[in-house]
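S1.2 Input.
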Amino acid sequence: MVYCEESDGGINPNSPSDVIIFNRQGVPVKFSDYCAQSDSLTEYSCVRNGEDVIFNGDFVECSGGVCENGACVSSPRGICGNGLIERGEQCDDGNTAFFDGCARSCIIDSGWSCSGQPSQCVQEICGNGRIGGGENCDDANAVNGDGCSNACAIEQNYLCSGTPSVCSKTSVGEQRTLVILLDYDNAVESYEGMRSQIRSIMDGFNGYIRDVSFGRAWLSTDIVGPYRVSTADCVQNSRNGVVILQKAIQAADPDVDFNRDYRRIVVLSNDNIPITICNSRGDNSGSGIIRENEYLSLFAMQTNERRVVASVFRSTLGFQQSLFNLAHEMGHNFGDILQHVEHMSCSVGGQRTVMSLNLRDCATDQWSQTDPMGVRMVHYNAANTEFLGWLLPNQAVTTTAGSYTLEPLSSSSNGVKLIKIPSQITDYRGSYNYFLEFRQPTGRDSEQFPRGFPLNGVFLYLQLTGTPIMYLLEPPPYTNPTAFTHKPLPVNQPIILPEGIRITVTSQSSSGARIELS
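S1.3 Output.
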C-alpha cells in the first residue's frame, strides 16, 4: 500500500510542498515534505504499516508504489500517444499532434470534448447539442429566448439539463417553498399559536398560484420557527434586506435540510415590529435573490448542508393584504423577473394622446390596478403570465393586422390570451411593443380590493420588448386632463397608434372580445 505521495506529483523534486495523510483515526493531516532522491521520501510525518512514524532523519521507503521524479506515486504516469487513458491523462487519441482536441500532454483542449479509447475529439460549437468548452447548456439551436441562449448560456428564469439540453421555466411545476418565521428581540408579540393561521395563509396562496398559472405551478410548503433574532447589527442602509435574510437562514439552519433544494424561501416577520428595525424601504417587505457567487461574505448563506442558492423574499403578516403582499413579492421572486406595472400618460402639444413615438412626451405614475405587480391580487397580466411560462405557445400571437378573438385571461381555456403589436418606439433600453389582453370580472379577476374598479374589457399596454418592463396605457376620451383613468378600450371606437396601426374592439361578451387590427 502507498501511504505517502508528494502533493506536487513529483513535478518538482527536491522542493518543499504539502502532503495530506490520514492518521489511524482516519483524520486528514497536512504536513510539509520534499523529495530527497528517486527511491525515498523525506517526511515530517508519515504513516507506514498503520503506525505513526515521526521524522527522525531516516528516509521513509516508498512501499508498494512507484517512484517518479522523486515522488512516491501509486502507478506510473501515463504515456501520452499510446491510445490508452492512464494516470494524469484526460484523453489519449493515439498521437501527439497539435490542435486536434487532445493536446501533446493528453489534456483536452479548450472548446473540445473527447471520449473513448483511443479518444475521439470534437470541437464544441454552440448549437450542436453537445455541452463542452465554456457552455453550460446546448439545446441544438442558436435561438435566444428558449432557455439556452445563442451563446449556450442558461437564460434568466430557466433551468436546463441533459444533452441536448431541455430547458424549462423555473416558475413552472412544483415550487418547493420554505417559510421561516422570524421575530425580533424587542418585538411586542411572538408567533406562538399562529402556525395554523400561517399554514392556512400559505394553503390559500398555493390555491391562488394554481389558479393564476392554470395549474402549471404550485407550492409545497414547509414552515419553521418562530426564531427570535437580534437587531443589534441592523443599520439603515440598502444591506438591511440581506441582513434579515442572513439572520433568518442562520437561525433556521439547525432545523432545515437545505439539500431539499428549496426554490423559494419566504421570511415572514411580525408586522408589529417598528418599521425602522432592519428595514431600508419604509415598510417591512421586499424581495432579494441569493444567487450563485453572490454575497459570499455572508457566512449565514452557507448552511450545514450547502450554500443556499434560492430566491428569497420577506413579508409581514397580520394585515388584510397579507395574500396580496405574498403575490406581489412572489412575482419579483419568480426568477427575479417581474417588475412593477405602472401607468403611462402621454401629451403632445398640450393634448393627451394614447402614446407618442418619443417617450419624453410621456410620464409614469402610480402602479396599475390590473396586476399583482401593481396594487391588486388578480391575475398577472397576459405578458407577465407568458414570462412565467404559464401560457401555451399558441396563446400568444404577434401581428400588426388581422382579426382575432381574445379570450378572458381568467378562464382556463386554451385560446388566444395575448396579442403583441410591434412598435416603432425605441430608446436607450431597446425597442418596444404594444400588447392587448381581455379581462372579465370572473374568478381571481373578480377581486375588487382595494378599489371598486372592475376588470371588464380589453386593456392596452406598452412593453419593453423581451423584458418584464411594461406600462398600462389610457385610451381616449380623456375626461380628466391631469389624472390617469383606469379603463379598457371602448367598443366600436377605433384607437389609432402613432405608428398608424388602428385597433378596434368590434364586440365583446363574457366569452371573448373580437379585435380588428389594420
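S1.4 Remarks. Residues 195-212 form the longest helix (18 residues).
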